[in-house]
């Protein structure tokens, strides 16, 4: 297990009113020892002031999953979707062979969200049949309910333990735990908001909530594939 602290993330940003923290090599920052974990290639914490946002841009061969922490995210994409995503919602954009989208804070309050990018599993790259763009929003994802990302052979669960509660982590080749809020104890280490643990071939691990917390827990099983 390797823990990355919130303060160890790379500081990014793209325009006025945008503050970004990257967990992996991203944009102008490159560390050859930190380019991916399993199929996960990005975990960005984004903070957008009211009126700020990312203009329309293009992606391909990536699965983009977004979790809003506070505020409202307005999403538009070339599949025709225009959605406002709120805390508790899971948004997925499958880029397939190519998709364009924009993300903005059109609300009156600051917006904070976590965005994770995963590479597609074999059979779902732009070189494969059926790799068309796709989009969905799951409203109000229930506590611990699995969200299966078929195109990346990965599963996300959002856990909201109360203080004193223990959570059994999944047994998978790669497990990624991101602390959204609160404080947990994991394998003798204390993690707080913004910290993340990367666990390889873990078995029998549990997270102990030291306070009320919210965790994003990924279980990944497929080797990365590139189109």
Automatic annotation (TrEMBL):
InterPro entries xrefs: Pirin (IPR012093), Pirin_N_dom (IPR003829), Quercetinase_C (IPR041602), RmlC-like_jellyroll (IPR014710), RmlC_Cupin_sf (IPR011051)
Stored Pfam families: Pirin (PF02678), Pirin_C_2 (PF17954)
Domain of life: Bacteria
Record-annotated Quercetin 2,3-dioxygenase C-terminal cupin domain positions: 152-217
Domain (Pirin N-terminal): residue spans on this chain: 15-118
Stated family: Belongs to the pirin family.
Protein name, per record: Pirin family protein
Species the sequence originates in: Streptomyces milbemycinicus
């Amino acid at each position: 297990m390797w823990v990355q602290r919130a303060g160890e993330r790379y500081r990014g940003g793209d325009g006025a009113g945008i503050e970004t923290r990257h967990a992996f090599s991203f944009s102008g920052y490159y560390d050859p020892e930190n380019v991916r974990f399993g199929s996960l290639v990005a975990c960005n914490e984004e903070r957008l002031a009211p009126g700020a946002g990312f203009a329309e841009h293009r992606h391909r061969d990536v699965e983009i999953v977004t979790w809003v922490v506070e505020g409202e995210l307005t999403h538009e994409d070339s599949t025709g979707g225009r959605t406002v995503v709120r805390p508790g919602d899971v948004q997925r954009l499958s880029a397939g062979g190519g998709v364009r989208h924009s993300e903005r804070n059109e609300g009156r309050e600051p917006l904070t969200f976590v965005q994770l990018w995963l590479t597609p599993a074999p059979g779902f790259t732009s070189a494969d049949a059926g790799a068309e763009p796709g989009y969905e929003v799951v409203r109000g994802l229930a506590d611990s309910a699995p969200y299966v990302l078929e195109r990346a052979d990965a599963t996300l669960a959002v856990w909201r333990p109360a203080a004193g509660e223990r959570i059994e982590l999944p047994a998978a080749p790669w497990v990624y735990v991101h602390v959204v809020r609160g404080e947990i104890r994991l394998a003798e280490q204390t993690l707080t908001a913004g910290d993340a643990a990367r666990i390889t071939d873990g078995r029998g691990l549990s997270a102990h909530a030291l306070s009320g917390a919210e965790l994003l827990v990924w279980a990944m099983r497929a080797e990365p594939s590139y189109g």
